[in-house]
Amino acid sequence: MIKAMLDEALLQQGLRYLAHNPEKNLPNLLKWGERVAREPQHKEYARNWRRLMEDENNNWRRLIVRLLKETAPNVRRRLAVNFFIHAGVLAPENRRRAEEQYGVRIPWAILIDPTGRCNLRCRGCWAGAYDHSQDMGLETVDRVITEAEELGIHFIVMSGGEPTVVMDDLFYLAEKHNKSVFHIYTNGTLIDERAAARFAELGNVTFAVSIEGPEEVTDARRGKGTYRRIMRGIEAMREHGLVYGFSTTYTRENAHLVATDEFIDGMIDLGFAFGWLFTYVPVGADPDLDYMATPEQRKMVYEAVQRWRSEKPIFVADFWNDGEFVGGCIAGGRHYLHINARGDVEPCAFVHFANVNIKDTTLVEALKSPIFRAYEKYQPFCHNHLRPCPIIDCPEMLVKVVEESGAYSTQGDGVTAHRMCQALLGYSQEWAQVADAVWTEKHPDYVSNGEPEPDGVRNGANGASEGNLVLVAHRSGATKDADREVGCRTNR
Predict the structure, then answer these.
(1) What is the chain's alpha carbon radius of gyration, rounded to the nearest angstrom?
(2) Which residues on neighbouring strands pair with residue 207, listed in sequence order?
(3) pTM score, two decimals?
(4) Is residue 468 a contact partner of residue 444, using CB atoms and an 8 Å limit?
(5) Residue pLDDT, tens place only, 299-342
């Protein structure tokens, strides 16, 4: 506790120093950090960042300076302390203790839907097949967050439905759990001056605003007039110094626009500090395979994001194409989980299957449920981490996980994993060819037999044929322990 207080005081002092003159003081602070760092690795980190911050044209320097100048002081302080101290420095040890105590993986974040209600009806919504009348209930959400914090989880993500439909609940939760960061996925249309001012007072809330780009593109998916309402919300957030980013779904219809400098420059001009890119996944309301970005479009977005990271003053993550940086799929309690508005505890927002409901159990017991154990058993689902997803990249693995765990469908239509995944086999095969070519350039020892369709899914049997997709890459002269299993995993 004393160390945490000292760390917080030191961090706040550093923030005040930086805010005074960030262009000058960023390199100075890193130079000091380089001198006092004890570990050679930490000295190298400080040295590399100092060099970046000394370059006036460096995109990361421009982003950090902009955030220091434009973010409200209270927001800057609260987010820095919660993110770097509570969710950063202290969290790993707290999660390790909980893992040892309970014998279960503890994720870094949880995603909760406080409500299934929404004021929009967007095409291809992943949550469109849920019951839109459901509210989880403030008491339940509060209890789950309390349990999460006790486990060392201090990054709380909220979605829906539209979470700002229950705006007062968000105020209450952020104020009560003031040592956690709240990250709210929102369509932005209900954020007004009053809400933005209150969130600025709280200081520990960030936003990911759903937007597809220009007005005509956004309105085509989210409804006429939506873009202008989003702009009013962004204006209020910007005026009150909040930290916000964009959340964009790229599809067959807009991927060619998303993967352009015009798109990302427009997002920067609107004040977005970060962006989350999602490829359209045909789950939820009216799943449409023809709405999915083609494999070539997905590669195009991947290449654009790689380039932006060395040029643009904004942090952008692509949750499918960035599997290479996080070791594959992050769901199933590995780094996060999802609890829908009805209370079903799912491995992922896009995987609508569960064994338990949080209203009837604790968070720890939910993490021990069969579907989470199956996720842990089979992750990574593919050793080409550009194919991380058990839905669209290795659909045979989702069938295996769901059938092995006996999980029930959480969608109103009761769709089975087999039915959903069988339709995605063609796409997964096409993407495998593209992704394996990209992966092989970076990892020449990777081998794929180009056969991503196991007999079990094709023929309707339970599970998948043993070993049909288990591929081994051998390095010349390597020992057995150094061999790597690659490809979609159908056995362990």
Answers:
(1) 23
(2) 184, 244
(3) 0.86
(4) no
(5) 999 999 999 999 999 999 999 999 999 999 999 999 999 999 99
